[in-house]
Specification:
This protein folds into two domains: 83 residues, no CATH class; 147 residues, no CATH class. Helix content is 57%, strand content 11%. The protein contains nine helices and five strands, in the order βββαββαααααααα. The termini are far apart.
């Protein structure tokens, strides 16, 4: 039986398993709610996506008559396609997920507790960065291929925190380089029409910002590609 939930079509297969048609803002929100409630979710969309332990993404073109879900047989075929190779992909990603979560916990601990007033701007910036790197839905957003870079970004954050006490003036100078670019990116995202996700350039700029931080605070870790504030600003237009 098909039903509407917050504007997205949802089909319940068995208790605890649902299919969401579309991964736009509404579909994504529905999927997140279902995951939080402990359900398994299959998301059908034209572009597909990176599956996680709770959410399986399946690429479906609505213009392809063979992909239309109009009966139980078609639905079962889509679910089977979603499951194919899923377990192997999850197992392959688990070590990287574990590394990310371990460094996230270390960063949370390093950024917690009491702090001197002079350190608050830097600590606030690092906490905002941490929340953006590892927050609700971060696995689906980043994808398995980017998990190792997220681990590097977290390591760079930890190195910055370790140096903060003895290098406060240097940290302020580096923040002065990064903050205007971060603000420019945020303004572009906030200016998007309601319901429109960031485009390719904004998504790329978001991850280049993380590489820029690595280049400034943790050069020894190396960046994934050449990066500069000018290159990011060109993406932002």
């Amino acid at each position: 039986m098909l039903s509407k939930q917050s504007g997205a079509l949802v089909k319940e297969v068995v208790v605890g398993r649902h299919v969401v048609v579309g991964k736009g803002p509404v579909g994504s929100a529905v999927a997140q709610v279902l995951v939080r409630e402990g359900h398994e979710v299959v998301v059908l969309s034209r572009s597909g996506g990176t599956s996680t332990a709770q959410v399986r993404h399946v690429a479906v073109d609505a213009a392809d008559g063979g992909a239309a879900v109009r009966d139980e047989r078609a639905f079962a075929a889509l679910v089977a396609a979603a499951r194919e190779g899923h377990e192997a992909r999850v197992r392959a990603a688990l070590p990287d997920v574990t590394t990310v979560l371990e460094r996230w916990r270390a960063a949370q601990k390093a950024l917690g507790g009491r702090a001197e007033i002079a350190h608050l701007p830097a600590l606030t910036d690092m906490r905002d960065q941490l929340a953006a790197l590892v927050g609700p839905g971060f696995l689906a957003e980043a994808g398995a291929a980017r998990l190792r870079r997220i681990a590097v970004h977290l390591s760079a954050l930890l190195l910055r925190r370790e140096r903060l006490d003895g290098h406060l003036a240097e940290d302020r100078a580096l923040m002065a380089q990064v903050s205007p670019v971060v603000d420019a990116w945020r303004h572009r995202v906030e200016a998007l029409p309601e319901g429109r996700p960031p485009g390719a350039d904004l998504r790329r700029a978001r991850w280049l910002l993380e590489e820029l931080r690595v280049s400034l605070w943790a050069q020894r870790l190396g960046t994934a590609e050449k990066v500069s504030d000018a290159r990011i600003r060109r993406l932002l237009g």
